[in-house]
Amino acid sequence: MEEKSTEFEEINRKKREEIEQQLLDLPIVQYAWLSEEDIPFSDHVREICRKECPRYGKSWSCPPGVGTVKECQERCSHFSEVFVFTTIAEVADVDNLEETLATRPEHEAVTKRVQEILHPYFGKTLALSAQSCEICEKCAYPDGPCRYPDQMMPCVEGYGIVVLPLAEKAGIEFMNGAGIVTWFGMVMLSSE
């Protein structure tokens, strides 16, 4: 039995090395491979979304459109691994929301590219990104179904995932200094 386990670990190590080689071209600052069980979920994050986010209730990629935290956690439980990563952007004032959000499209493009790189190695992926999806100028929510369900990337926090303990578990810096915006992304992975 131990021989099969060692063989699996070697295959997994080689697969990760191949993937990491492809990721070198991307502006990823830090990353980690975690288990699905390492993801911290909390209904409290949803309260913050509801009270503070202007996209709450306006997109299929955000609550309540993505489902309850329990439903999101259940969806994530069908994946065995998660690739967590960050990109950074420099801004004059991180408190200037307009300036900060203007740096987000590059992170979204990186998240999409990470998912494209990982997908051939895993049978199934789910990308979660930094903010609400903006593929459509106006989301079909709640009157109609998502127009691009295969391209839409839900928000990490919108799924009820608490980023700070996730970053700590991954050994990833949450804050990178004054004038630096740290964007988090993650891709859920399954070999099924």
Task: Describe the structure in your own words.
With 192 residues, the chain is α+β, with helices and mostly antiparallel strands. Helices cover 35% and strands 17% of the residues. It contains six helices and four strands. A four-stranded antiparallel β-sheet has the order 1-2-4-3, with helices on both faces.
Map the helices and strands.
Blueprint: H1 2-23, E1 30-35, H2 43-52, H3 69-76, E2 81-90, H4 97-101, H5 104-118, E3 124-128, H6 163-170, E4 180-190
Antiparallel strand pairs: 1-2, 2-4, 3-4
**Unreliable sequence segments:** none
Number of helical elements: 6
Count of extended strands? 4
End-to-end span in angstroms? 21 Å
Radius of gyration: 17 Å
Structural class: alpha+beta
* β-strand amount: 15-25%
User: What percentage of residues falls in helices of 4 or more residues?
Assistant: 25-40%
The helix-strand sequence is HEHHEHHEHE
Summarize this structure briefly.
With about 190 residues, the chain is an alpha+beta fold.
Q: What are the main properties of this structure?
A:
192 residues, alpha+beta, 6 helices, 17% strand, globular
